[in-house]
Structure prediction request, 446 residues.
Amino acid sequence: MSAMEWALDGVLAAAITVVAWRALTVREHFQAIVLFITFGLLMALAWVRLSAPDVALAEAAIGAGLTGVLLLDALHYMGLFPVRKQTGETQVEKGLSARWARLLAFLALGGLGVVLLGVVFNLPREAGGLAGQAQGAMEKSGVEHPVTAVLLNFRAYDTWLELGVLLLALIGVLCARGETTLASGHNLSPKGQVLDWLVRWLTPVLVIVAGYLLWLGKTTSGGAFQAGVVLGAAGVLLWLSGEPVLERLPGVLWRGLAALGFAAFLAVGLASVMAGRYFLEYPEGWAGALILWIECAAAVSIGCTLAALFSAMHPPRQSQLSLEKQPKEGTE
Amino acid sequence: MEQHLIYASASMVLFCLGLYGVIAQRNLLRKIMALNITGSGVFLLFVSIAQRDAVDFADPVPHAMVLTGIVIALSSTAFALALARSIHRETGRQTLRGEPSREEEADSQREQSG
Prediction:
């Protein structure tokens, strides 16, 4: 490894650590979120340096993009209403003991950090890993990109259940919302020609990029995740610009789309069991085609779920009204 | 020092920093953010080890697991934020019960000195 590369990696690793530290300790919440987004972008660079472009794409879109949007949106929402004073509960001792607790946590985690660093430096220098095994099975996998082969063939089970977790998160958010529809009755955006024009151009571009990323997954970095996230971003963009597409779809349709990826995996899995194979074991020669179809379904599903997660965060109009009254009642 | 070791050591520092944030920060948004940083630390260690085990390409299994992990981290973040919003909606607070917010702590200290 040349000195130049060494310096680049060192500076990047140090920058990531410092930005994370600042994001955790800075006083202003808004500043912290912006630092967190910066952290996500730096992490994407680190993934590239570690020759993990798939992870880099996902991190840039999710870690820096969507998580940042969700956090900023929550901050905006929680900032709308003043913090109500807690009566009687806050005592001075509590404040002081909290400071001691923090110091204790700092010392304990500092110790843990030293131990973990010791462990990392004492890891065996060579352990084999599964790269060799993956390489050996690539021919039968139906795709040419090892990461896609692992995701959708060798360890398809993980991906299937991951779609299940996404679906569960959506159900959870809808439950926390207390409403089964996505209607939010918001009109955040001041309509303007520039915004209209931009959204009109960006939306089709995003859809094309998503399709391209999906297609790339067969041979190189890309695939259902990255495509799905770009689709989801398009949904969020449309929502923010006052065109909530998912709200306008019939409830059955967006729910169906959100469950499509999970259902497609399940259908293929059950079909393979019926044919006397293991669950999600693709028949010889069919792997490529089946993976393509599952990936399409998964991408649509991920995109729809992410956009729905974002919309479902916003309370319906009625409760927004009651919210505006609530804090006043509390202070009286 | 090899490349993967640089990132592996950064990953463990991130893990501890994030965990400290989860404990020390009161605001729920900041706690959720800290949890995400903890997760990033774990992902970074995974991918560093994948780089160590590279043959012709880096070990694809940790890469796939991290990809899955990133999406799961996002879904749990979204759910956590929805819960934080409900807590705020129900109680008007941005912190957990029993944990005073920064403003309240400052108030009580002022009362004590005054």
